[in-house]
Design goal:
The chain is an alpha/beta fold and about 120 residues long. It has a domain at about 5-90: 3-Layer(aba) Sandwich (Rossmann fold), CATH 3.40.50. Helices cover about 30% and strands about 15% of the residues. Strand 2 (about 45-50), helix 3 (about 55-65) and strand 3 (about 75) form a beta-alpha-beta unit. The longest helix has 10 residues, at about 35-45.
Length: about 120
């Protein structure tokens, strides 16, 4: 990788319209605005790494099929050093463990329609 700042972007649930696992061969369509999002990152001179558990050659096929290839530098299932990680299943640690546990209890990815449980104070 170059000396540019790296941004890792998750595939399922961020770049595509993921709504649950449907098998290794199934790829959801791109999320509206994904192309423009990647273009905006590139215009800010970020190196863009797609970080996913999926098999990289299949992901590259999906990227090419949807015209995203000019904006993606790498696809990996390893967590590379990065300036930031953009993921639909992340909780940002802000230095407070108790708050983090509370946020974890209430967490649901944006695409999961399940009702959120009531937050309860951490014990």
């Amino acid at each position: 990788m170059s000396k540019q700042r790296v941004v890792c972007v998750d595939l399922d649930g961020v770049l595509n319209l993921y709504d649950g696992w449907k098998g290794a061969e199934y790829f959801h369509p791109p999320r509206p605005g994904a192309l423009e999002f990647l273009k905006a990152l590139r215009e800010q001179n970020y190196e863009i790494v797609v970080f996913t558990v999926r098999w990289a050659p299949h992901v590259w096929d999906w990227i090419r099929e949807h015209g995203l290839e000019p904006y993606v530098d790498e696809v990996t299932d390893k967590k590379p050093p990065a300036w930031a990680y953009i993921d639909d299943r992340a909780i940002c640690f802000t230095g407070d463990f108790q708050e983090t546990v509370q946020r974890l209890r209430a967490f649901r990815p944006h695409w999961d329609g399940a009702p959120r449980e009531q937050e309860t104070p951490a014990s």
